[in-house]
Amino acid sequence: MAVESEEHFVKIINKPLKSKNPLVIVGFPGIGLVGNIACQHIIEELDMTYMGSIDSRYFPPLAVLFNGIVYLPVRIYEAPEKELIIVISDIPIHPMASYDISKVLADWMQSIHARNIVSIAGIATTTGERRVFGGATSHELLEKIKDKTEIFSVGTISGIAGSIMTECYLQGMPAVILLGETPGPNPDPKAAVEVLNVLNNIFGLSIDTAKLSGQAEQIELELSKLAEQVKTTETPSFPRKEFPMYG
Fold it and tell me: How far apart are CA 62 and CA 190, in angstroms?
């Protein structure tokens, strides 16, 4: 199965999926690598199956190897017993490419009858807390998450995480964004753990986070180089009045 833009700049190729109405969770590298870390942990904990990839002329010329085998940097995994799909990326997405990639991705999620979409990213603050901010494409979904997150009242979310939410809204698709609070651009597994806890509470996934919590320091070291490339990716912008810690 392939979904491709009119300009043939983005294509999604995947094996036939077993899930009928999956929950789709998307994690691209951004501030703190929160989405990337959270999605990778889910893939490993559930031993999810590699099902396909997204390819684009927008992506840098590189290959990703796992145990000597080449994979594309943006990949799709499935856990059919949980009706769960993960889309994860090892590369940051350039802002100029976000629109086309988000549109093709949303079209594909529509074609596989996704029952809900979750976009995960980070949010940089100076509070020292580990809150999870949330937003949604509808009032009904906002009601579902309002007691489990800090509602992102006013502000903007740049990069692919925000672009995916906008495209889901335009297509009338149910989508939630979860933003893990982090003090800066360095890899932040602790923020990812908090996001996973919220995911468990909202969708009943029962993802064990003990291993991720125990390996936090090691993960921070391993991913610090990737974080340098995405310091300004998916950084929400708050008004000063709403969040005075930026004053």
Answer: 29
